[in-house]
Amino acid sequence: MRKQHPAYPLFMKVIRRDSHLDMNFVPMVIEQSNRGERAYDIYSRLLKDRIIFLGTGVNDVVANSIIAQMLFLAADDPEKDISLYINSPGGSITAGMAIYDTMQFIKPDVSTICVGMAASMGAFLLTAGAKGKRYALPNSEVMIHQPLGGAEGQASDIEIRARRILKMRDKLNAILSERTGQPLERIEKDTDRDNFMSAEEATAYGLVDKVIEKL
Question: How many helices (DSSP H) and strands (DSSP E) are in the chain?
């Protein structure tokens, strides 16, 4: 009997659209029970253990899927932590902020774990985890920088978009300052260009709380 998690259809839509993965590339997990065999796709099986995996760029579709999973898990058990594993190059600011706000909104603590690379909005979401529960694996990297954006069209439209990007930059920097404990002036300086950090450097900076080697 093949059992799918309630969030599975939306998640697979994300997989197909954002990652261009065929269903055959999504591993299945077979579990035995007194009712017989159950086959789960790997993401549904992880969700059963309150694990969410962000392994793509951040866009509206990905954000909606992650938010739906968080809301489901929060309703399922508001007292148990949620683990968010991040291996992401970043992406949309507005989509990322939607995930960030949901992480702060729900009752369960969200523990974040960097695997591979957490860059840009991926790094922002990494540091958005519950304080004391933000981790990085030993060979992972974190990269922070200022928002990227471009504009074309009439001069007035370009000016409007430029002002919006500057407002976003100030908001992101203020949150990073609060989440890391670094002075705002240092955040502004350190995000002026791509700033890559090792797991140990990210810990010293305050982006994560600890480098972990084992669960």
Answer: 8, 9
Q: Is 20 annotated as catalytic?
A: no
**17 in a domain, yes or no?**
no
Our answer to whether residue 198 is catalytic in this structure is no
Partnered with residue 118 across adjacent β-strands are 88, 142
Catalytic residue, candidates 120, 140, 156, 198: 120
Is residue 87 assigned to a domain?
Answer: yes
Distance between terminal CA atoms of the chain? 31
Tell me the per-residue pLDDT of 95-144, one tens digit each, with 9 for 90 and over.
999 999 999 999 999 999 999 999 999 999 999 999 999 999 999 999 99
Residue 8 lies in a domain: no
pTM of the model: 0.83
31-67: per-residue pLDDT in tens? 777 777 777 788 888 999 999 999 999 999 999 999 9
Q: Is 120 left (phi over 0), alpha (psi -120 to 50) or beta?
A: left
What letter represents residue 210's amino acid? K
Q: Which of 5, 145, 177, 198 is catalytic?
A: 145
